[in-house]
Description:
Layout: H1 2-7, H2 15-19, H3 60-67, E1 74-81, E2 88-93, E3 99-103, H4 120-127, H5 132-143, E4 155-161, E5 171-179, E6 187-193, E7 196-201, E8 204-209, E9 217-224, E10 237-242, E11 248-252, E12 257-261, E13 264-268, E14 272-277, E15 285-291, E16 294-299, E17 305-309, E18 319-323, H6 342-346, E19 372-377, E20 391-395, E21 404-413, E22 416-427, E23 431-436, E24 442-446, E25 458-464, H7 469-482, H8 491-497, H9 503-515, H10 519-527, H11 532-552, H12 559-566
Antiparallel strand pairs: 1-25, 2-3, 3-4, 4-5, 6-7, 7-8, 8-9, 10-11, 11-14, 12-13, 14-15, 16-17, 17-18, 19-20, 20-21, 21-22, 23-24, 24-25
Amino acid sequence: MRSLLRRASIVPGCLALLLVPAAGASPPAVPTAGVGPPAVPGIEPPPPPREPRLAAASDEAGAARGALALPEGFVAELWAAEPDLANPVAFSIDERGRVYVCEAFRAHKGVGDNVRINDERWLDADLANDTVDERFESMLRLLGDRAAEWVVETDRLRRLVDADGDGRADGATVFATGFNRLVEGHGAGVLARRGEVWYACIPNLWSFRDPGDGVAADGRVLHTGYGVRTAIQGHDLHGLTLGPDGRVWFSIGDRGYAVAHEGRTWADPESGAVFRCEPDGSGLEVVATGLRNPQELAFDDLGNCFTCDNNTDGADRTRLVHVMAGGDSGWRGPVQYLPDRGPFNREQLWRTPFEGQAAWVLPPVGHVGAGPAGFAAYPGTGLTPWFAGRFFLADFRGTAATSLVHTFRIRPRGASFEMADHDETFRHVLATDVEVGPDGALWVSDWVQGWEGEGKGRLWRFLPAAGDTARDAVVAEVRGLLGGDWITRDAEALRALLGHADRRVRREAQFELVRRGDGARLAAVARGEAPRLAKVHALEGLGQILRAAARAGRTTAEALPAILAATADADAD
């Protein structure tokens, strides 16, 4: 258990930093008018956006299905297609099977790019920006009368449901829209859980409530100040996921940030970063920096966090990064504009560990793909045994013929890891995001074609063909557990579920014991003869209880002694 305490969400050498979040209350609620976000302070709301142009329904998906290359014994089922969704960047499936999709319509029509469309005046101005307000002023100055053209299109969040359970979406609503202000980026991250929906769209991290009708309510900005520079399109706020510590984790590309929150300012205008905060937005922390464009985050069974960082279109390669607290991966945005990418390439900061490497940089654990997008870890059930311990990476390359979903494992190497068992598993799909749903299938969002978006989009389910009754029984059990009533579940049943084969079930059992404040039961699991992964979740839950107690100015008798006792566990992990 010693390496778990070292790696899983804990700042090395200082256990208290895990357990004690920043002080302060959550931000006040910001009223919304149904689906439209409130104005960013100091920036006038633009006119209502134009309705996005969507492609009509067609039979194109049938031909695309025939071109897919899947593992032997797998089938592809089309769950949704245009016009029910279009230009899907990311998606999240909640415990009830409702799907929330980020749709992007502002590429080069509201979201700029210093490499592809902006001139040297833009670049010089952008490199001087350290806050969102400064970027706003420079955009007004440089655009002049054309500023009105940059607030016509909107990104939005769509909700899709399969009400009759026939395996095909039959209901689609615009959950939230109106993200067309001059300073707003692409809405590129979403997380849905138990009626709450988090949405990442520069410059804000949003929280909404789904009252059940598919239209967002109670919208509020949890933080603002992300995206102080234009940089490169797509280097946005994204990667929303729920961590094993019960916090919301997310990432930003090298558009930088200057976020004033709870009495302090987190600021870096030159590199991307990984963040975490409590679900209500409080306790914001920067976990790791020096990233170029880390799209999504994924956790293994022991709570280690990983992301895939994009290359510079230079001599470097895409990087699989172990996200360690305090880690710096070496990237600084301005070197993008040097022909050779400056010291990033000259000193080969992007390479896996080698003799003579700069000591201050955290090297990647591997290189995979060319256009990393969606990223997920197999939860333990749903597919075939071959997928045990594997990660899924959507590799977006502009055409279906060249794009794919990689899978691989990660194994320990020294104080970190290395990539192993790489496979190009699902090919010929222009994938933007991946997730194993509560139904056990691998869900993949499909951009269809090109870079700009053609008003089309698909959601595929990749799954083993029917016939394995044992697997089907496990999938049915997991689906029932995830969508069931955890609040009324017996405490001893929750304790047993800490050792379940599916990480999502283990996590929900952990979270419910934490919600009840049942530190004694978690401590008993951590100190007893429980299965290894049950102990992992018990320790994560005890950390949650300690953090909550510290925020409330209370003490807790069970948590800290059990955590400290785990450092002497015979299992080093």
